[in-house]
Amino acid sequence: MTRSPMKSIDVHAFEFHNQLDPHQRGSSLSDIILGGQDGLVNVLGVILGVAAATSDVRVVIAAGMAATFAESVSMGAVAYTSTKADHALYESELAREHRHVHLVPALERDEIREIYRKKGFEGALLDQVVDTITANKDVWVAVMMAEELKLAPIEKFGAVRSALIVGVAAVVGSLVPLLPFFVLPLVTAMWVSILVAGLTLFLVGVYKARLTVGHWSRSGIELAVIGIVSALVGYAVGLLFQVPATP
Predict the structure, then answer these.
(1) Which of 198, 170, 166 is nearest to 48 (CA)?
(2) What share of the chain is helix, strand, coil (3-state, %, to 5)?
(3) Are the beta carbons of 204 and 14 closer than 8 angstroms?
(4) pLDDT tens digit string along 45-97?
(5) Mutual orientation of helices 29-53 and 186-211 as an angle, nearest 10°?
(6) In a domain, 109, yes or no
(7) Which DSSP state fits 145?
(8) What's the pTM?
(9) Assigned domain for 79 exists
(10) How many CA atoms lie within 13 A of 159 on its CB side?
(11) Is there a contact between 216 and 209 (Cβ–Cβ < 8 Å)?
């Protein structure tokens, strides 16, 4: 049996299209950016504020390390509790939709019909879609969750996974502005820290735009500016509490 030339062309075209423009699977991009950006910006603000208030680089490093680990634990805990809350909400709404399908199926069927009528289905095709969906209660409820409530299922261990990713990303992000203070004089380290942090935030913004939508340069500049301006607030606060250098 010979393969149709058109079929072969369609398959190769499909594969080529996927290589050029692959679908982005669900990833931990948001958790990585959340932890990394938050850790970097917060620790940069802390060390710039402390550096503005004192000339002792050891104090700056101590404050930065304390902020690094406190930030990572805090961010991980927030990611864990928020993901658990989202999971609980999803499970609660899932149980409610199952009850509605069991107790008031006619009303729920009308809601399915209205959802797909708004999508442009009508007549016999609309009837067929509604019949197909409502023939299986699990499919029926899943459609209601996605289309009516705009809720997506959350993995069973998603909270732990999210907490670990956010926590580790926060540590890595926090160390970026802190490292120059280990090897450079205080004033030089401050400038290098700002430059490295800004470049890192810019690259993160570029990476985010490449994986999602938006112009890479606009996304990079936006993230860098927001981060640096936020961190400079810490520097301004440090100036208010500046400790005079001892002779």
Answers:
(1) 198
(2) 80, 0, 20
(3) no
(4) 899 899 888 888 999 999 999 999 998 999 999 989 988 898 899 999 999 99
(5) 160
(6) yes
(7) I
(8) 0.72
(9) yes
(10) 12
(11) yes
- The reply to whether 4 falls in a domain is no
Residue 204 contacts residue 37 (beta carbons within 8 Å): yes
Q: How far apart are the first and last CA of the chain?
A: 93
User: If you compute the radius of gyration of the chain from its CA atoms, what whole number of angstroms results?
Assistant: 26
Domains of the chain: total = 1
Domain range enclosing 77: 29-232
| 3 CB-near residues (< 8 Å, 6+ apart) | none
- Side chain identity at 55, as an amino acid letter? S
Residue with tokens 């442009």: 120
Q: Give domain status of residue 244, yes or no.
A: no
d(CA 11, CA 238): 62
**Token output for 82:** 């928020």
**Token pair for 156:** 């069973």
**Look-up of token digits 């959350």:** 154
- Closest by alpha carbon to 143, among 158, 159, 155, 130? 130
- How far from chain centre, in Å, is Cα 12? 34
